[in-house]
Amino acid sequence: MTDLRTRLRAVPTLTGTPPPFDPVRTPETPHPLFVDWLLDAVDRQVPEACAATLSTVRADGRPNARVLILKDVTDDGWQFASSASSRKGEELAASPYAALTFYWIPLGRQVRVLGRVEPADPEDSARDFLARPMPARAETLAGRQSAVLDDPADIGAVVAEQTERLTTEPGLIAPNWTLYTLQAEEVEFWQADPDRRHLRLRYRLDAPNWSKERLWP
Ligand SMILES: Cc1cc2nc3c(=O)[nH]c(=O)nc-3n(C[C@H](O)[C@H](O)[C@H](O)COP(=O)(O)O)c2cc1C
């Protein structure tokens, strides 16, 4: 049998077709360039273009990461939402710094966004919660994300109970549901090159100004 190392070496990577990108003709701040790249990915039907890896720091200083959905990008930053009582929520409360990493395979593009994370005010978090589909709201109302599941049958029972509550009270808000904003301090745009001269453009915030620099691949 072929060993794993050999099989992995045979898996193609960087298979995308990068669109034209001139790092010299880029905006002064990273936000509009990010939105351009994101919308390129959406328009070209990159699967789940708004999924990103959110990396946080645990209490013992070690990293943790998981995938979630980008909700919006505003002048304030990159927004995502989750339960404040989840593991990531607890990590962000203790150490409010994170990284978001996007990889749009068909475009050969990666973006890394680093910065401080702030919870939104309860009204904005509630608005985000109410825009979610019923099953997602019922699940969140159960309020158990990242807790240990002793009996898988509990999920059905608890979600059915919360769905019932939502049917009679559709305006219910899960108190822990939180919209977070990652206020970028550093954003790196990376685009693959067939000759391995990958393009890297890093923005860094020295408030209130952003600087830009190219990086070696
Ligand atoms: C494509 C995708 C999208 C997801 N979107 C979210 C999301 O928007 N919010 C969220 O809390 N979890 C989302 N999850 C689940 C998380 O990856 C994770 O399992 C969950 O938030 C618990 O993480 P934690 O234990 O680190 O808090 C998503 C997972 C995937 C694969």
What does this structure look like?
The structure is a single chain. The chain has 217 residues and is α+β, with helices and mostly antiparallel strands. The protein has one domain (11-125, 175-214): Roll (Pnp Oxidase, Chain A). The chain has six helices and eight strands. Helix 5 (134-142) packs across helix 6. The protein is globular and about 60 Å long. The protein starts with a helix and ends with a strand. Bound molecules: flavin mononucleotide. Residues 48, 51, 66-69, 80-82, 86-88, 145-146 line the site of flavin mononucleotide.
How are the SSEs ordered, and which strands pair?
Layout: H1 4-9, H2 30-43, E1 51-57, E2 63-73, E3 78-83, H3 87-94, E4 97-104, E5 109-119, H4 122-130, H5 134-142, H6 153-168, E6 177-191, E7 199-206, E8 209-214
Antiparallel strand pairs: 1-2, 1-4, 2-3, 3-6, 4-5, 5-6, 6-7, 7-8
Helix pairs in contact: 5-6
Bound molecules: flavin mononucleotide (FMN).
